[in-house]
Amino acid sequence: MLKIRDLNVHYGGIHAVKGVSIDVPKGKVVTLIGANGAGKSSTIRAISGLLKETSGEVSFEGLANANLLKKTPEEIVKAGVVMCPEGRRILPHLTVEENLHLGAYIRTDKDGVKDDIRWVYELFPRLKERSWQKGGTLSGGEQQMLAVGRALMSRPDVIMLDEPSLGLAPLLVKEVFDIIQEINSQGKTVLLVEQNAFAALKIADYAYVLEVGSVVLEGTGQDLLSDSRVKEAYLGG
User: pLDDT tens digit string along 27-85?
Assistant: First the structure.
């Protein structure tokens, strides 16, 4: 569904992503793991059209013969690829429901938007309970749920999640990963960037390990969980 070939990302004189090639098959959960500075977030920010000093090719079945690197962020969202950014980035002065409506800004089907808000509330019952609250008054875990829900409101085919467990308590981390699996089970393809390698590999169909901007290992989630190199570097031995 989503194919990345020879992706390079530069920040001025820094070569942050070096010839990365990955595949994200339809209906699967694919994860990128690695330490801080490995190039994980830069990879999905490039796919989203948020970084301009890039080269390579990102093809998506929703856009025949089109390189996403040459598209605007809005065109990429309309094609069906959306990112839930690191740090949540909800609008704190808007209510939960207003934030969700903002996620549907490209849509004109009002009845469909209402249906999808109901669906998001089914996925995240706590958001329904707090639909009237300002986003800034939510807990960190609730804000993460709202960020994911907002991303889902554009009806993406591929949702890219950037460090969804960052800063969350262990119980909330488990809840977030359970929700990722539920989203996937309902037909969404997931590209997950995550420092919590153990949690990410447990739910991944396929995974790539990035180090200093390059892919150094790849395989199924289960294979990498049992790989001695991954255990030593990312799973505490």
Answer: 999 999 998 889 999 999 999 999 988 999 999 986 666 889 999 999 999 999 999 98
List the Cα angle 219/220/222 in 5-degree steps. 125
Buried b vs exposed e over 74-87: b needs ≥16 C-beta within 10 Å? eebbbbbbbbbbbe
Spatial separation of the C-alpha atoms in residues 49 and 160, rounded to whole Å:
13
- In this predicted structure, what is the pLDDT of residue 77? 93
3-state secondary structure of 52: coil
Mean pLDDT of all residues in 165-177: 86
Q: Per the structure block, which two tokens stand in for 155? A: 């009806």
Domain boundaries, the chain: 2-234
Q: Report the distance separating Cα 97 and Cα 214, nearest Å.
A: 40
Q: What is the pTM of this model?
A: 0.93
Instruction: Name the architecture of domain 2-234.
Output: 3-Layer(aba) Sandwich (3.40)
CA atoms within 13 A on the CB side of 207: 28
